[in-house]
């Protein structure tokens, strides 16, 4: 693993909400810490209501984690564009985040320990 990236099981149960909808809760979330960036919670896909997510055309590349795919959250009242990402085929060093989703927490999306 890249020396500046740490992945561990996140303590407790975590929830994610967007646009007034609860997208999921998990006691199997992972916490990824990369350098001086704030920790990011990665939720197992199995714990997220995937019906709220639409695949996006956006993608980005991280030299340590690989290529990220993005999703938009679609609720009754709004579409939040490109607020979810996933490493479909992460680099071997961070393979634990495969089949997990992370969320931009920008006021319309909240991730919190419950």
UniProtKB/TrEMBL annotation:
Residues 15-105 form the DUF427 domain. InterPro entries: DUF427, DUF427_sf. Gene3D superfamilies: Domain of unknown function (DUF427) (2.170.150.40). This is DUF427 domain-containing protein. PANTHER family: BLR5716 PROTEIN, DUF427 DOMAIN PROTEIN (AFU_ORTHOLOGUE AFUA_3G02220). Pfam families: NTP_transf_9 (PF04248).
């Amino acid at each position: 693993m890249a020396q500046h990236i740490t992945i561990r099981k996140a303590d407790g149960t975590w929830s994610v909400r967007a646009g007034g909808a609860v997208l999921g809760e998990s006691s199997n979330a992972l916490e990824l810490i990369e350098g001086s960036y704030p920790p990011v919670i990665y939720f197992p896909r199995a714990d997220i209501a995937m019906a709220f997510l639409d695949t996006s055309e956006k993608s980005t590349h991280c030299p340590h984690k690989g290529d990220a795919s993005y999703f938009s959250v679609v609720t009754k009242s709004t579409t939040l564009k490109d607020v979810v990402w996933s490493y479909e085929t992460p680099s071997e060093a961070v393979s634990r985040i495969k089949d997990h989703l992370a969320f931009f927490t920008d006021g319309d999306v909240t991730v919190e320990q419950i």
